[in-house]
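Supplementary Note 3. Input sequence used for the single-chain structure prediction.
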Amino acid sequence: MAQVYARKTSPDKGKSHPCHYGYAPLNVITPASTVAGQVVVGTGAALAFKIKKVDHVVLSFFGDGATSRGGFHEALNFAGIHKLPIVYICQNNLWAESVPLSLQTAITVLSERAKAYGFEGITIDGNDVIEVKRVASEAIEKARKGGGPTFIECKTYRWYGHSEIDPANYRGNEEVEEWKKKDPIPRFEKYLLEKKILSEQEKNQIFQKIEKEIDEAVEFAEKSPYPAPEEALEDVYYEGELK
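The predicted structure, written as C-alpha cells, is reproduced below.
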C-alpha cells in the first residue's frame, strides 16, 4: 500500500509509482514497463539458476499481447535450447489493451507457440483456481528436476479497462457480463463450501481479517513520509567495493 501511495516506506522507496515494483525478500523481480520485457529478464534469472546449480524455478507472467513481441520469442527459444528452469504463464484475457486477440495473432491457442521452441505448452481455464494450482505445480516440479520450461496459457478475462483512463468502449457489455459469471473467486468459494473445506463462519472471519489488514495498510501508508527529492539519486549506482 505504501508503494501505491508513493511513500518512502515502500519496497521501492516511493520511486516507481504506481505498480512497477519488486521485493527481494520474497524473490519478486521488478517488472518492466516494456511489454514482454520481464520475460527476457526472467529467462536470464533462470539461466543464472542453472549456472549456479540451485534448484530455484522462475515463474514469468505476461499477457496475450506479449506473445506478439520479438523479445518474447527470443527468450523462449533460448530457454528451450538450454532447458532452463522457468515456467511461462500467459494470462490470456483476450484483449491487449484495445487490440483483440484476433488482430494480433492468427492462432487461437497461444500455448501452441511452445512447440516451436521444443517444450510443452498447455492451455487451461485460468478462472479455475484448482486447475491452475495443479498444472503450475506440475510444471514447477518438472523444471526443478531439470525437465526444462513449460508454457501455460490461462484463459481468463479483464473486466475493466487496461488502466484508469481506459473506458474499454472497444468491446460490448454482453461480453463483459458473460465473463463476470466466470469470476474465479465465488467459483472457488462455492467449491470450498460444497466440499465442507470452508464454513460460512470461517469465510466471514477471513473477510474480517482481510478488511482489517487493508485498513491497517492504508493507515500506515497515509502516515508514511514522501521521499525527499534528492533521494531520486540514491540506489542508482552501486556504491562500495566489487567482490
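Residues 200-223 form the longest helix (24 residues). The radius of gyration is 20 Å.
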